[in-house]
Every structure is written in structure tokens, then in C-alpha cells.
Amino acid sequence: MKIAILSRDGTLYSCRRLREAAQQRGHQIEILDPLSCYMNVSPVASSIHYKGVSCRTLMR
Q1: Which cofactors is this protein said to need (predicted)?
Q2: What's the alpha-carbon Rg for the chain, to the nearest Å?
């Protein structure tokens, strides 16, 4: 499973533990700064972007 964690500081204990636990179970983890994210919401489709790149692209 691919998991994105929104956190201002990926070095915090809670983020490190989440990453470790997920990796032990074979999951792929990305920690994203929420201040660098934006959402595009429309009636047809919604998307989340991180630093101008779609999260779908980041999580491939």
C-alpha cells in the first residue's frame, strides 16, 4: 500500500514511528508538508498536488 503522511516535520517521533511500522509491513511511505499541498476540487474529479505535482504521480 502507498501511504502519504501530512506533517510539517517528518523527523518527529510520531512520524518516524508511523514510517517504521508501515515499512515493516511492506508499505511505501511519503511524508508531505501540508503547507506545500493544495487541492483541486471540481464536480467531475478532485486531486491533491504537492509542490505542483499530482500526488498520483508522486505515489507511483
Answers
A1: Mg(2+)
A2: 13
